[in-house]
Target: Spore germination protein
Amino acid sequence: MFSFKNLLLRKTKPTVKQPAPKETKSFHFAADLNQMNTQFQDTFRMFPDFVSRELVNEVTFGVFYLGNLVDAELLIEEILNRLLHHEDMSSPEKLVNLLPIGQLLLDDNWYRMQQYILQGWTYIHINGYPCGILVNTTKRRERALTRPENESQILGPQIAFTENMETNVALIHQYLPNPDLCEIAMNVGENTQTSIRIIYLRNRADLEMVTHIYNSIDALHLEALLDATILAQWLEDNPSSAFPQMITTERVDRAIFPLLEGKVVITVSGSPQVIICPNTFFDFFKSIEDYYFRWSTGLFFRGLRIMGIAISLFATATYVAALTYHYEIIPQALLVPLAQSRARVPFPPLVEALMLEMIIQLLSEAGARLPSKVGQTMGIVGGIVIGQAAVQAGFTSNILIIIVALSALSSFITPVFAMANAIRIIRFPIILSAGIMGGLGIVVSVALLILHLLRQSSLGQPYFYPPYTIENKNNRDGLIRVPYKLASKRSVFANTGENTPKGTKDIDE
Model:
C-alpha cells in the first residue's frame, strides 16, 4: 500500500526515511578526514560536549558524537574497540556488517547527519570515502514502568506507557504478538524531529483510513512537536469544537482493544500518552473496565455513566429554569423549603447558579494544580468552608449547593478527561439559555448541541455515529454492554472483511 524508501539498515524492523529539510549551510561530505573534522568543528562549535576522535587501524577513522547524549559504555565496547582491533574494515559497507548495533544508517546527507548526532547518534567517517555511517548510541533516559496514575482501575493490566516510544511500541507488541500488526514511522517537527509511529492491524483496519491518517500527518508543517496531545489537536477535523475528537490514553490495554476493532494507534516520542483514532462521540463514555466486569455489571456502570452526564449537563439548568419561569413543575412538598432556603438570597437564580458553578470550577482547578496531598485537602476543606459560609451569608441556597456539587461530581465520571472538561464548558451555555428562555432554552440548547455533533467528523469518519444500526459489523460496542457471545466482531471503522485472511479468528472467538 505504501511505497516508502528505506535507508535505515535495522536488524529489527525497518523504519521510514525522513524528508530532508533545506540545508542552512553549503557543507558537504568530503573524502578527506581533516576536511570533515574542520566542518564538524565549525558546525558544533557551540556545543562544549562535542567530541571528535581519530582512530588508526588499517585505515584512519573519524568518530564524532556529543558526549552527554551517547551511551559511553556502548560506544567504547561495541564501536571503538572493534574499530581498533578488527581487520578488513576498509569501507562503510563492511562496517555496517561488522558493528553489532541494532540501528545503522549509511547516509550522505549533511543536514540529516546533524539531526542524528543531536539525538545521540555517532558518526564514523573512513578517510578516503565521501560518506560514512551513523550508529545509534543514544543513552536511554526513561522511567521504569509504573501503574497508570490518571486512569486507575481495579481489574485489568496495571501498566502504563512511558516517555520512551520504543518501550511503548514494545508493550503493544507484547500484548498483541500478531504478524499483521504494522507500523509506519514518521518524523514531525522541523526543530524537534519527533518520531511518530502509526500502528494498526492490517487485517482489521481500513487501509483507506490509514492512508488518510498518514497523509494528514505528512501534511503538517510544524516547527516542534512535544506531546501526543498536541498532535491530536492538529489532527482534529474541527479544532474549534469544544468536544475532543481524539482519545489519548496512558493505559496499554485501552490501546489494544481499539487495534482489535480496526482503529489506529499513534505513538509519539517523548509522550506517555498514545492517540486512538478515529472515534465516535459514544467512545468517550466507555471504560475499558466495562469489559473486565461481567456484562450485567458493565451494563450497569455504563448506564450510570450516561445518567451522570445528563445530570451534569442539565441539573443546574433545570433548577434555574424552574425557579425563573416554571414554578408549576416544582413539587408542592418542595416549595416551602425551597422558598425558605432562598429567602435571604439577593441574587436571581441565574446569577446565583453561575456564581456557585464558577466557585466549584475554581476549587477543582486549584486542587489539580497543587501538589497531590495538598490538593485533595484543599478541594475538600475549601468546598465545605466556602459552601457553609455562602449559605450562612445568604449568597446561595442549600438546595443549589447540593445540585451544583452533584453536577460537578457527575462531570468527572467520564472515563476520558478531555471529554469531562468539554462537559464542564458546555454546562455554562445551557445554564445561560435556561436563565434567558427557561425550558425552551434547554430544548434549544439540546437541539443545537445535537446539530453540532452531527456536523463533526473524526479523521473523515462520522463523529456522532449511532451506537447501533442494522449492519452487524457496527454492533461491536454500542452504548449497551452485551455478553461476548452476542456481540459482533467488527467495529464501524474496521474493514468489511475482504482484506481479512480466511481462518483468522477474532478476540472473542
User: Anything to note?
Assistant: The two ends are 29 Å apart (CA to CA). The longest helix spans residues 295-324. The longest strand covers residues 181-188. The chain has a mean pLDDT of 79.
